[in-house]
Amino acid sequence: MILHPAANEGAAPVLTSAVTDGVCTLTLARPQARNSLSEAMMAALSSALAGIAADKSVRAVVLAAEGPVFSAGHDLKEIQAHRGDADRGRAYFAEVLGRCSALMTAIVRLPQPVIAAVEGMATAAGCQLVASCDLAVAGEKARFCTPGVNIGLFCHTPMVALSRNLGRKHALEMLLLGEWVEAPEAHRMGLVNRVVPEGTALAAAQELARRIAAKSTVPVKLGKEAFYAQMEMGLDDAYAYASRVMTENMLARDADEGISAVLEKRPASWEDR
Length: 273
Fold this sequence. Notes:
By secondary structure, the chain is of the alpha/beta class. The protein contains eleven helices and eleven strands. Strand 2 and strand 3 (23-28) form a beta hairpin.
């Protein structure tokens, strides 16, 4: 097991990482602080993702958490500690939000698919973290919330991830009401892919990850990147872009192998090229 330490030398790790059968499971390990996205947690996650991006042995990622809270979002104690700065915290707030935005973007741009395994609560930037993952599995008692509006702070940055995953009215309902959304409703809204019995989200997410890991990395990597890129385009541009990417995919060795395997009625043998 690889440990990603907190910012202070000798501090307890805030994130653990383990790789099995091509699946890397990252676990938020700060349950005593509700797995908040502190500076140390964001740094550890960003570092881990950077390493995973360059690691060809990792074919899929599962993001889980210790304790009853998946993540409560930003560390409010760290935020409030800078209210007394000369600029009332403006520079610090901008830096923290920039780091958080970069972390969420890194998940989206990671070559490997990322699956959230959610038990308990995911609030504010913690909910944003779930929405930023490519897929999400939730235990039946998991709950989600963007409560910023209730404390005078609209969840602007979580809004970016939510609005790209949910319908507009569903996203705005969460953002404007700041109320809890239970797992079945989160599934109906499209925030999570599956709801499973309590305590089994991690196992279910790892099973999905293993199924993805069994495929060639070529179409998975190209497909994930193309999915997010075409979402930002108009219809004509999206089809033109997708056609270019699919042409390149067709020229890959594994595409030739996969099609040949279908025609020859045999299992494919992937070389990830």
